[in-house]
Amino acid sequence: xxxxxxxxxxxxxxxxxxxxxxxxxxxxxxxxxxxxxxxxxxxxxxxxxxxxxxxxxxxxxxxxxxxxxxxxxxxxxxxxxxxxxxxxxxxxxxxxxxxxxxxxxxxxxxxxxxxxxxxxxxxxxxxxxxxxxxxxxxxxxxxxxxxxxxxxxxxxxxxxxxxxxxxxxxxxxxxxxxxxxxxxxxxxxxxxxxxxxxxxxxxxxxxxxxxxxxxxxxxxxxxxxxxxxxxxxxxxxxxxxxxxxx
Length: 246
Description:
This protein has helices at residues 40-53, 88-95, 106-117, 162-166, 168-173, 178-197, 235-244; strands at 2-8, 12-19, 24-25, 30-33, 60-64, 68-69, 72-73, 101-105, 126-132, 136-142, 145-147, 156-157, 160-161, 201-205, 225-228.
């Protein structure tokens, strides 16, 4: 069974049909740039471009980088604030020609995919997935059950939102070495999250997960096991499709 998934990120919007038996993309994903500014109408138009690229005619799952309750956006830290209060499901549904659309938080989608098909499969206790990209998304699970919309990237770290210091974008913008970023930024953030939640497992996702060997060796001193996301940057697409299939 294939269902379409779209992952809206701060820099790119990507999607593909997903094989929900294997938990993998059924076709090579198509990606477009996130518009600047990332207003609701413009982003919905880009989502429609991605869906139209495949000639898709069926349910569509869409991730959003912020808190989503029902299909209404409640926060929008890394896209235009005009999203706040927008019924994203209705807006995107209209843009894709009336196809049924399900919208959920981006990290929650990635987390559900990893817990079902990836690094969290079969794990119990507290598991936290963190997506390291334009910001830091989070998905918290207790014995496999999701606690939605946790947004742990906005915890305070050194007087700033943690994602402003420990995200992949922060590393790139400040031209930090992998070692400096991992030891001075990411490790301190993980230690703070660990103090609050005492997880058994951290799963690190987002585009940076494909370069895990560059920074994982520097994350010593964390009691929890730390592993890269197995679905890597496709996890959000897979999780979005899973949500749309329910």
